Amino acid sequence: MATNTLLFLITILSLIVVPGPDMLYVTSRALASGRPAALKASLGISAGYLVFTVLVAAGFQSLFMAEPRLFQAIRWVGLAYLMYLAYRLFFAQGMWTSDEEPQAPAHTNDLKFGFLTSLLNPKGMLFYFSLLPQFYVPEAMPFWIYALVFGFLASLLCLIVYYGIGSLVSGPARLWLANSDNGKRVSMLASLCVFAVGISMVVADMA
């Protein structure tokens, strides 16, 4: 269980730190209105992912109990998606800030729009419904408890990382993150981490 938890945290962090809709929203709000806006946006995004956590905990356990083969199918679909993410991240442009970032009004409701950003993010939905079961160990605990604990961990990491990056973007790291070469390096490093996790999971299933 400890190994799966470590792999889970590595995967989550690798996916969180790469620019996407959530990251772009937080950084744009940080650039427009500073750290308070970044905090509210990050809280909203994390709250949106908690909704997915509850949905997974409420529905997937019964499905897995009724049809164990469905669980294995989802695991392999999730693994394929993990490899696809690694491929996309490796060749990503890595732009953390740009003139095309979505700009919201200065007095926008950052909590609400952050919530909607994550709730409507297809990548986030795929993670919670496809990748989250990858790290489940049936002998350790019931699936619904696992989903709540690990889903909450994922949401908490989103909050910490997004607010941390939002704080940096609104401060001294703004110029460094705006450099596309630096963004590409971060994306490639995240890609290698995700790929390594995927390979370790294939080896574990074949053992």
From TrEMBL:
Organism listed in the record: Pseudovibrio axinellae
Ranges annotated as spanning the membrane: 44-66, 73-91, 111-131, 143-165, 185-204
Major subcellular site: membrane
GO cellular component: plasma membrane
InterPro entries with a match to the protein in the record: LeuE-type
Keyword Membrane among record annotations: yes
Location(s), subcellular: Cell membrane
This protein's name: Leucine efflux protein
Keywords: Cell membrane, Membrane, Transmembrane, Transmembrane helix
Origin organism lineage: Bacteria, Pseudomonadati, Pseudomonadota, Alphaproteobacteria, Hyphomicrobiales
GO MF assignments: amino acid transmembrane transporter activity
Protein's membrane topology: Multi-pass membrane protein
